[in-house]
Structures are given as C-alpha cells and as structure tokens.
Automatic annotation (TrEMBL):
This is Polysaccharide biosynthesis protein CapD. The keyword Transmembrane applies. Gene3D superfamilies: NAD(P)-binding Rossmann-like Domain (3.40.50.720). The chain crosses the membrane at residues 12-32, 52-71, 83-101. It holds the Pfam family CoA_binding_3. InterPro entries: NAD(P)-bd_dom_sf, Polysac_CapD-like, Polysaccharide_Synthase-Rel. It comes from Thiocapsa marina 5811. Residues 286-568 form the Polysaccharide biosynthesis protein CapD-like domain. It comes from the Bacteria.
C-alpha cells in the first residue's frame, strides 16, 4: 500500500480512538463523582448537553498539540508529555467555555479533575500497551539467544533495537553487570541475571548463542578480562564501538563488530588540549616528512583537521604519497597543500622546498625502522635516519622555522641495533642544534604502534589467514604498544607544549608480551592457539632485544601539564664524540659505502651500542615451563 495512505490511515485510526475516549472519560467522571452509583437525571442531562462542546474542544486541542505526529509503535515519554499537556489545556478550555455558556450549572467541581485524569489514562494506556505488545511478540524467542554484558546506556539501546527488530533475529535473555544497584533489576523487561564473573555459568544454564559486549567505556584491562570470560564459553561474541568512535552517541545491532586487538591493547581515551593544539598549528605552514608512512599519514590527517594555512607533504615513496594526497583531496577539499616526491637526504631538494614553502613547523617522521633489515643495510639507515635528520633539521634552522619535532623511538635507549643507534644520533643532532638555533627542537620518543607498516599485527593477521603457523621470536619478548591515532595526538600535544631541547617520553602503559598478542589474535579469529593454529618460536632476530626501554636509568622523568607526556631530564646515552664531527664522518662513510667505517664511527659515538647475543629457539618443554611460570 502507498506509504502516504498508510500514514493517513494510522492517524485517522488514532484520532478516532481519542475522540471515542473523550465521551468515555467525560461520562465516567460523572459516574466516579457519584461513587459508581446511580447518577441523578438532571446531572445526566447536563453531561450529555455539554458533551458536544467537550468533544469539539478536546478534539481540536488534541490535533493542535501534535498527538498524531508520533507512531504508537514507538510511543515514549515525549508522547506522554504531549498527552498530559493537551488534556490539561483542553480541560481548562472546556471549563471556561461551559462557565460562559451556563455558569457550569449542574457540573460538579470534581468532574473536570476526574475528566483530566481519565483522559491521560485512556489516551496513554492504549499507546503504551500497543508498544509493549509489539516489543514482546510471542515469536521473539525464535532468534539467537543473547546475553548482554553491561546494563548501562549502551546495553539499553541494544535491547531496544532487538525488541524493535521485525525479523526477531535476537532474543535478549538477560544482562550481566557488576554494579550492585543493577542486580535484580530489569531493562525493557529484560532482567539483570548476574555479574560478569558468572558469564560461563550463565551461558551454559541459559543456553546462550551469542554474547554482546555493551561496555564502550571499558578500559583495555577490563576488556581483556571480559574477553577471556567470553572465550571460555566457546560462544561467539561481539562488541559495540568505543565511546570516542560513537559519533552519534547511539548504539544499534548494526554497529556490533568483532573484538579487535586494539580493544585489548588500547588504553583509556586521550584527553588533549585541542584548543592549544589548534592555536599552535592553525594559520601556520606545516611540513611533514615521511608523510605517506604509518605515523606520517596519520599526522597529516590530524594536522589537516587543525586547519593549517598550508600543509607540505614530503615522502620518497611514490605510491604512499599519492595515496595520502588522494585522501586529502576527498576529505579536505578546501585544504591548501602541496606534495614533494623527495628523499630527505637530498639537501638541495629540501632547500628548494623550504625556500618555496617557508614552513613554520616541521614534523620529521621520515625514518627507516625495520630492525632486522637495517642490520645489514647500515648505509640506508645512516643516510635516512642520520643524514636525513641533519639535512631537514639544519634547513629548519637556516630558514627560521619556529619548531622542529623529531619522532624518535624506544629503540634509541640503550641501542642494540642499527636502527636504534641511528635514531639516538638523530636525537643528539636535534639537541645540539637547539643550543645554537632560534628554532625550537623537540624530540618525542615512544614505542610500537598497532597496525603500523612492518609491525607484528599485520604479520600475525596474514599468518592466521593462511592457517598458521604464527611466528614469535621468543616467549618472553615484550613491547610497548599504542594506537597510531593516540601516538599522533600526543606528538602534536608535545609539539605545542615544548620549549625546545626536550625529549618527551609518551606514557606507553604496561609492556605486552608478543606471545600474548599472538594468542589473542588467534582466539579473536575464532580459533584456538596451539590446536587449530600453532605458534612457532624462532629465536631473536639480529639486533632484537627482549625488552625495550623508554628512557635511561640516568634520566629523570619529569611530569608535564599533560598526564601522558613526560620529559626525560639528564645525560642518558651521551654521545662520546661531538655530534657534528661524528655525523660528518658518518655522511662521508655512507657516501663512500664503507660499511666497516660506518659501524666504527657509530660505535665511537655510542660506546654503549653492542647488540645482545642471539637467543636460540627454545624447546617446547622450555616454552611450557615459561608459560607455567607466568600462570
């Protein structure tokens, strides 16, 4: 049928119902006034004589107050408020009109009050009953039996969405929640049947088919606990997005998604001084090197949102640069930006870019970072990580830039590999330049980011897709992790609060064992580690350490005005030779491709640089012993 006719039919039926309720309420008010007994004839005549006026007035008021905009199927509190307002306004008009006509003769004073109350009951009652009947059809139990974790706002919206679903794909059996005040309660008729610790028992007892995690504000630690409980049931489970990703604040079944590794390893949402960040970046020309990489591209996205006057992208990867260019064109059509396909070690090319663009703020994200690969590619590491940093940093000083932000790594602390050694030299270059330049040089040091190019997460994902095995270098190896957006937000925050010369250390939380990461990713794929997909321990790779550090023991971490950013104060990891001389010698050795000379110069600059001995692959028994010790 035509939707317009359907709508008109619905309104006509609702209006007809309300018109019928008016005389029922009017006459019932007289009957109640006389204690449900016989009504004197003169009062009966008065009631019927007044009824046409009551019908016209109340019917008009009902229509004017919009009682027929809403649909009975979704009757709610706003509809009840409209009914009360219409009943009050109509009753007042009825009393005034009848007073003008006949001084309300033979109309007891209690009748209008009773009439008002009866109207609200007779109009609101059927609407709410209709909705309840629709929300609790008898065929509801035919869908999947669902246990909802979290009886808060998100859980309430999920249940409401299930009850409205015409296909009845899901049957909400109950909630679990740890808040004492919610125990024994109900949400839309669905009971809270226990605490989260009882999930395995309740799943078995209630024959649950699916678990829904409706806790968007849960921390990573809480999510890990809940996921472990859900995994123990052997039933599938889904989660709602995090609060920061719920743009509308509404939750529906369509937004449910599998639990991701970011849910388990991510942290509490970062609170930033966005006004300060925008004030520091807006209306300024900002240059980002490595703009097509994992960190660089996310920096570009977030800087673009801060409305710089101009954004300059530099990257030596053609495809990556093209990809971020197309994204900016689509997402920020009004943004003024330019892009340069350029190697950061190309001094002449960089100087031309600075002369043409005159950037004010530099984010230096260009770096080679793959630890095992760089162990036998020292020339590339030196050219990109050391020479490239010097070229860009000196250009920033020469062209009177305001700030230069170097993105460093935890591998620069007690470096055990070429990558860490070259990044530690890059830090020293910036600290030395800060002493002699008007430009403020700021270093930001942090650990691994989830999902970045070359990280273990995409590697494990590919291995799991192919059925395994998943390769982990060592059962005890652990790393710090944070998400790429969080890292970039904190980098921008550090860039704004820095005065120059600081090494900012981002709060990475607790380190995570790579073994745990692999096991959880296998479980989240719906399979069991060690049974359906095996984990092979292949031994540490060249230059790889078991544990990473974010600062030296001799460095003191000093709080800043942001709780997740601290400053490393002290003389940790001193460069033995003057940075300028060492970097010049490295550059000459790299130009001549003298591998031994580069190693020798780096070791002279960094006496502490000595790779850890390679750890051989452990036996299955040794791995099990370590698992038992952890447990």
């Amino acid at each position: 049928m035509n939707p317009l006719l359907d709508r008109l039919r619905s309104r006509t039926a609702a209006f007809s119902h309300d018109l019928l309720m008016i005389p029922v309420a009017w006459l019932a008010a007289y009957w109640l006034r006389f204690n449900l007994g016989r009504i004197p004839p003169e009062f009966v005549d008065s009631a019927f004589n007044s009824l046409p006026w009551v019908l016209v007035i109340q019917g008009t008021v009902f229509w004017m107050f919009g009682l027929y905009r809403g649909v009975w199927r979704f009757a709610s509190l706003p509809d009840l408020v409209r009914i009360v307002k219409a009943a009050v306004a109509g009753t007042v008009l009825v009393v005034v009109t009848l007073f003008i006509l006949n001084r309300t003769e033979l109309i007891p004073r209690s009748v209008p009050v009773l009439f008002l109350g009866l109207q609200v009951i007779l109009l609101a009652g059927p609407r709410l009953l209709y909705r309840w009947m629709k929300d609790h059809r008898l065929n509801l139990s035919s869908g999947q039996r669902v246990l909802i974790v979290g009886a808060g706002r998100a859980g309430e919206m999920l249940v409401r969405d299930m009850l409205r679903d015409a296909s009845r794909s899901y049957f909400p059996v109950g909630f679990v929640d740890d808040k004492p005040r919610r125990q024994g309660g109900e949400v839309h008729g669905v009971p809270v049947i226990g605490r989260t610790a009882a999930i395995p028992e309740l799943v078995a007892r209630e024959d649950i088919d699916l678990l829904m995690l409706a806790v968007p504000s849960a921390t990573a630690k809480e999510m890990r606990r809940l996921v472990e409980l859900c995994e123990g049931t052997g039933r599938p489970f889904r989660t709602v997005p995090e609060l920061r990703n719920l743009m509308t604040g509404q939750v529906s079944i369509s937004q449910l998604r599998p639990v991701s590794i970011e849910d388990l390893l991510g942290r509490d949402p970062v609170s930033l001084d966005w006004e300060g960040i925008r004030a520091g970046l807006s209306a300024r020309a900002v240059l980002v090197t490595g703009a097509g990489g994992s960190i660089g591209s996310e920096l570009v996205r977030q800087i673009a949102a801060a409305l710089p006057s101009r954004l300059i992208l530099v990257d030596n990867g053609e495809y990556n640069l093209y990809r971020i260019e197309m994204e900016l064109v689509e997402r920020y059509p009004s943004l003024c930006f330019t892009r340069y396909l350029l190697d950061v070690a190309d001094a002449a090319g960089l100087d031309a870019v600075f002369a043409a663009e005159r950037p004010q703020i530099i984010f230096h994200a260009a770096a080679y970072k793959h630890v095992p690969m760089l162990e036998d590619q020292i020339r590339a590491a030196v050219r990109n990580n050391v020479v490239g940093t010097r070229v860009v940093a000196e250009a920033a000083s020469r062209w009177a830039c305001e700030r230069f932000v170097l993105i460093s790594t935890d591998k620069a602390v007690h470096p055990a590999n070429v990558m860490g050694a070259t990044k530690r030299v890059a830090e020293a270059i910036c600290q030395a330049l800060d002493q002699e330049s008007a430009c403020r040089y700021i270093t930001v040091r942090f650990g691994n980011v989830l999902g970045s190019a070359g990280s273990v997460v995409p590697l494990f994902s590919r291995q799991i897709e192919h059925g395994g095995p998943v390769t982990v270098t060592h059962p005890d190896i652990e790393r710090f992790f944070m998400t790429i957006p969080e890292a970039c937000q904190l980098i921008m925050q550090a860039a704004v609060i820095g005065d120059g010369g600081e090494i900012f250390v981002l709060d990475m939380g607790e380190p995570v064992k790579i073994r745990y990461l692999a096991e959880q990713m296998i479980r989240l794929s719906g399979r069991e580690p060690g049974e359906e997909i095996s984990i092979h321990y292949i031994g540490l790779r060249p230059g790889e350490k078991l544990y990473e550090e974010l600062f030296y023991d001799s460095e003191d971490l000093v709080a800043t005005r942001h709780p997740k950013i601290r400053v490393a104060k002290g003389n940790g990891g001193l460069i033995a030779a003057a940075p300028e001389q060492g970097v010049a010698a490295l550059e000459q050795a790299a130009a001549a491709d003298e591998h031994a000379a580069m190693v020798s110069i780096l070791r002279a600059m960094l006496p502490e640089w000595h790779p850890e001995p390679r750890v051989e692959t452990l036996s299955t028994e040794a791995v099990q012993d370590r698992r038992n010790a952890d447990a």
